[in-house]
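Bench log. Compound arrived from synthesis this morning; before running ITC I wanted a structural hypothesis for how tryptophan sits in the protein. Inputs:
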Amino acid sequence: MNEKKTMLSGIQPSGDLHLGNYLGPMRHWPGMIETYDCFFFMADLHTITVRQDPAQLRKRTLTQIAQYIASGLDPEKCTLFVQSHVPAHAQLGWVLNCYTMFGELSRMTQFKDKASKHSENINAGLFTYPVLMAADILIYQPDYVPVGEDQRQHVEICRDIAERFNGIYGDVLRVPEPYIAKVGARIMSLNAPETKMSKSLPEGCVFLMDKPEDIMRKFKRAVTDSDTERCVRYAPGEKPGVSNLVQIYAAATGKSFEEIESEFAGQGYGKFKPAVGEAVVETLRPIREETERLLADKAYLESVYRAGAEKAGCVAEKTLRKVYKKLGFLAR
Ligand code: TRP
């Protein structure tokens, strides 16, 4: 069969994808599908831990699939699917709830953080979210889970749950390794460069579906720095705004920081900001155009996520059967 190592990652369709998502993790995925047997899913079950607008959620889920394909995830070479299409995630999630301690979930920093932000809706799903995530992972028995730094603790608890389960029932679940990408650029907000680019600061955030004129406007208004040298230089501590733009320009053009510094030497920021904007427009153009084309072909997208759910479902179902058997559930 296949000797490639397996990799799995889930992405919540809870917001529109932006430049930070693209230049950080997404840009590296097309290369990864050549090396690994990859599963990517839209984590819709996870999004409802906070209230979602149903029509928006449906639209975002479909758009996100189209954007992944458009940015190079060839569905012939990896498995793309929607989490809620594979019921085994929720089924294993229930099982693992019974092997996860209240105390360890209480220590999750993301729970504490989200609970304080959504104090009107601290639901049980928000609390047990890492258990569902552990089920998402363990059900495919992957070798690696590529995640951002913010999800590292969730991969750790997943490993703890798997080890606890294996300690009781034998080697049932493969214990995966987190895979924190080496080159993942950390893109900051264009108008608040101390914070990560995020959809909650839309003026400082470049969305993958933004029109070129909107992208240009956002870059022209980007916050630079109030120092007197007014020189394009990568120095994140001293010059967070300019350094962020240098990083974006480097990622979009493939140029090194040194090349960029000499390209704009003695020119101030007036030429630099629109140049970054143009580079980003050209980087995103093919992705936006291809996404639009795919969204106009619903039948094709449907065929992709159906085939994905079929393939993922077979793998997931096998793990679930094995777990049920170990637990002593009577076979159907
Ligand atoms: N919790 C992840 C996030 O918010 C999304 C996610 C859900 C995930 N299930 C996963 C990531 C499984 C990796 C593996 O970003």
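What the model suggests: The CA atoms of residues 88 and 317 lie 6 Å apart. Residues 8-10, 12, 43, 46, 133, 136-137, 145, 147, 151, 154 surround tryptophan (CB under 6 Å).
ITC booked for Thursday regardless.
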